[in-house]
Every structure is written in structure tokens, then in C-alpha cells.
């Protein structure tokens, strides 16, 4: 079994304001393995930022256990809670880089100075620091901008400066808190590609906090979905996309794969609006080796179920094909029941969106 680089167990974070109590994080347990790109997805206010701030104790939890790299930072069961000395905590925090939506750069300092700022406590000599800054700016492809000021840069360039700064102390973990939320789609993809490259080249573990499942789909191998402080479900990105359980997860996936628009348009068509009795409107989701053609021909050949495909979509997730079909199925009651069972047996997720299965 691999030891997680981050282990959060039964984390609660409760804020008390005057007479109001806000349970920002409720009983959350997450294990992140070295080299994971772990997506934490949820709408604003779900508790994502509070949860990740608990990792480096920028937010001390109310209960639970925080273990990073095998070292217990916090244990709510122990009387003193925080288990690590302030000086050690400062050192450990340098090994956990963070990037944010609004970049948090120092506007009156140049690009190179912004990156160098993160090295102020580093034991490196002045020359070594200079070399390190150049190396980092090269990594994020901003060597030619080193003497410019943040105001002279685009949003994507500012975020790359922030990434270079976050990597200055060779962290093992990078926390990306809505880092692409203020960027346009093309720039978002460039930043995600850079994060993916850092993950692949340096085995950097990345926590990707986002309200956009598209970002998770692009680069995360695992994902947890949060709502009202709690994790609704978590698992490999492939499993979550092919077998989502919670309605919120389904909503995120529909948006990320543009199925929401297709579903709305198709649901309004005559064939679905006036679905005859005995027919079913369904979504079939499959991954890996199944492809839609044998599935559909199998339904007809074995069960005399006719499937009209109203919409089809294929995504590549972690190198695996994930297909979704919106279909109207017609056949005999027994044929439909057996046909759907056979799809399930083949690992296809079947959701009946309209009509009733006998
Ligand atoms: N220091 C604090 N004091 C009181 N309440 C807080 C504090 N920090 C966060 N909260 C509350 O905790 C809840 C979770 O906030 P959090 O910022 O973690 O959510 P989020 O999912 O990261 O959303 P966003 O992306 O909008 O920041 C919210 O209701 C927020 O108002």
C-alpha cells in the first residue's frame, strides 16, 4: 500500500461568529498519494479553501487529524491539537507551494524579484538564488519578462510568475486554489498544461481546488466533490465520470462535457416530450473497451431493442475513452428489462431519464 503524502482524517472546521456557528468543513477524510493531481470540486462556499488551508495549518481544524509526509501536524484527539513546533511548521509550509485566483504578486517588484521573494529564508547564496530564479522563469517560459512588473503582464503570465514563486523552495506539494478561475479558456488550458507538465516531470503532487469540473477532467486523476462542507463522493476521475452518484456530481459532469445543453435541447424535442408508453429515454455511459456500436447492435440482436441515438459524446480521461449516449430505447417489456441488465453487466452505467422500466 502506498503511504499518502497528505492524509486528512475526519476533519471538522467550525467558525463561531457572535451567536452564529458555521460548519465550513464537516467530517472530511481524504488521502492524496504522491504524484496525484487531486481535484477538489464544489461551488463557492462549499468549504474547499478552508479544507486545503487545514493541510498546512493556515486554518487549524476544530477536529480530526492532519498528516503530511508521515508527520502528524494536527491531532484533535490530543490535548494540544497542533503537534508541530512553529519553526518546523514554517519550514514544512515552504514545501507546500500555493497559487491563487488573484495571483497575489507584489506589484511594485519585478517578475524576478517576486520569485526571489520566496527565497528570502533560503540557505542559498545570492548567486545561487539568482540562478534559481532564472531556472524557474525558464521553466514557466517567462525568462524574457524577468525585469517587467506585474502590471505589464497578462493574467496567464501573472499566474506563471506565481507558479514560479510557488516552486522556489522545491515543494513536493502544490495547492492550486481556483488558479484558473480568473482566466479565459485558452489561458486556462495553458496553465493546466503547465501544471500537468510539473506533475509529470517532477512528480509534483497537486491539489486542484476548483468550481470547474472541466479543469478536473483535463488533468486530475482523482476527484472529491464537496457541498456544504462535506465530501459527497470521491474516487478516480474515470470512476466519478462514469459512475457519478450524487446529483451535484452529475450536474458538474454534464456541464464539463457540454451534456447539459444537449440534454436540455433533446428533452424538449417531440420524440422525448411525447415519449410513447413502453419507450425509455436513457443515458448510457461507458468507458474503456466498450464502444457504442457493439452495445447498440447487441441490444438489437439479443433483445430486439431498438436504440435511436439522439446525442453522443466521447471524452478521453486519463487516456481512457469515456462515452455518453442519449438514446430512446424501444422494445418489449421483457426485452427492455433484459437488455438494460445486459448493459449493466457489461459495465455500462444506465440512467433512465424518462419512462419507466418494468
Ligand atoms: N475565517 C472565517 N470565518 C468565518 N467563516 C468563514 C471563514 N472562512 C470561511 N468561512 C465560511 O466557511 C464556508 C466555506 O468557505 P470556503 O472559502 O472554504 O469555501 P470555498 O468552497 O473555498 O468557496 P470560495 O471558492 O468561494 O472560497 C463559507 O460559508 C464561508 O463563509
From TrEMBL:
PROSITE patterns: ABC_TRANSPORTER_1 (PS00211), ABC_TRANSPORTER_2 (PS50893). The keyword ATP-binding applies. One of its GO terms (biological process) is amino acid transport. Keywords: Amino-acid transport, ATP-binding, Cell membrane, Membrane, Nucleotide-binding, Translocase, Transport. InterPro entries: AAA+_ATPase (IPR003593), ABC_transporter-like_ATP-bd (IPR003439), ABC_transporter-like_CS (IPR017871), ACT-like_dom_sf (IPR045865), MetN_ABC (IPR041701), MetN_ABC_transporter-like (IPR050086), NIL_domain (IPR018449), P-loop_NTPase (IPR027417). It comes from Fructobacillus ficulneus. This is ABC transporter ATP-binding protein. Signal peptide: none annotated. Coiled coil: none annotated. It holds the Pfam family ABC_tran. One of its GO terms (molecular function) is ATP hydrolysis activity. Residues 8-253 form the ABC transporter domain. The keyword Cell membrane applies.
Amino acid at each position: 500500500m502506498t503511504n499518502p503524502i497528505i492524509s486528512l482524517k475526519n476533519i471538522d472546521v467550525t467558525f463561531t461568529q457572535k451567536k452564529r456557528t458555521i460548519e465550513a468543513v464537516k467530517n472530511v477524510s481524504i488521502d492524496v498519494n504522491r504524484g496525484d493531481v487531486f481535484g477538489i470540486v464544489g461551488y463557492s462556499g462549499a468549504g474547499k479553501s478552508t479544507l486545503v488551508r487545514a493541510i498546512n495549518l493556515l486554518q487549524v481544524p476544530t477536529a480530526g487529524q492532519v498528516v503530511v509526509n508521515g508527520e502528524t501536524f494536527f491531532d484533535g484527539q490530543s490535548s494540544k491539537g497542533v503537534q508541530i513546533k512553529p519553526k518546523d511548521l514554517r519550514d514544512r509550509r515552504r514545501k507546500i507551494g500555493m497559487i491563487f485566483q488573484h495571483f497575489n504578486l507584489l506589484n511594485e517588484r519585478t517578475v524576478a524579484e517576486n520569485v526571489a521573494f520566496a527565497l528570502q529564508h533560503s540557505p542559498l547564496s545570492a548567486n545561487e538564488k539568482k540562478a534559481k530564479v532564472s531556472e524557474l522563469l525558464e521553466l514557466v517560459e517567462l525568462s524574457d519578462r524577468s525585469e517587467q512588473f506585474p502590471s505589464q503582464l497578462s493574467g496567464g503570465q501573472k499566474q506563471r510568475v506565481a507558479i514560479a514563486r510557488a516552486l522556489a523552495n522545491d515543494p513536493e506539494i502544490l495547492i492550486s486554489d481556483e488558479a484558473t478561475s480568473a482566466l479565459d479558456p485558452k489561458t486556462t488550458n495553458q496553465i493546466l498544461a503547465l501544471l500537468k507538465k510539473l506533475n509529470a516531470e517532477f512528480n509534483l503532487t497537486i491539489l486542484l481546488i476548483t468550481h470547474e469540473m472541466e479543469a478536473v477532467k483535463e488533468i486530475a486523476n482523482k476527484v472529491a466533490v464537496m457541498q456544504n462542507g462535506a465530501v459527497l463522493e470521491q474516487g478516480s476521475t474515470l470512476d466519478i465520470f462514469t459512475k457519478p452518484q450524487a446529483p451535484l456530481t452529475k450536474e458538474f459532469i454534464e456541464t464539463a462535457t457540454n451534456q447539459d445543453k444537449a440534454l436540455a435541447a433533446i428533452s424538449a424535442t417531440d420524440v422525448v416530450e411525447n415519449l410513447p408508453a413502453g419507450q425509455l429515454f436513457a443515458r448510457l455511459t461507458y468507458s474503456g473497451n466498450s464502444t457504442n456500436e457493439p452495445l447498440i447492435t447487441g441490444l438489437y440482436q439479443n433483445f430486439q431493442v431498438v436504440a435511436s441515438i439522439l446525442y453522443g459524446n466521447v471524452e478521453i480521461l486519463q487516456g481512457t475513452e469515456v462515452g455518453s449516449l442519449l438514446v430512446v430505447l424501444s422494445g418489449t417489456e421483457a426485452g427492455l428489462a433484459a437488455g438494460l441488465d445486459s448493459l449493466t453487466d457489461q459495465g455500462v452505467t444506465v440512467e433512465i431519464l424518462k419512462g419507466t422500466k418494468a
